[in-house]
Known about the structure:
Layout: E1 2-6, E2 16-22, E3 28-36, H1 38-43, E4 54-58, E5 64-67, E6 71-75
Antiparallel strand pairs: 1-6, 2-3, 2-6, 3-4, 4-5
Amino acid sequence: MRKEMPIDSAPMDGSKITVVWTDDDDQRNESIAQYRALDRLRASGGQWDENDAGWWTFIDSRTQRRIEPTAWIVETDDGDDEND
């Protein structure tokens, strides 16, 4: 079963998770995203500042975008498995 959790409880260790966010057209989206801290961004090279830290997702096959998720999705095993 899927459960939405507040984004402030999401892991920020660089792991990829499913997040919920709203785009510029007020469309609700679910995407795989990753929190990228400033120190990790700087370690990858390039010029980064504190405005670049945050949640990043691919919006198409080649384009990444920093987003502001409102929640993240947790898969839970609630014991209601039909195969038991």
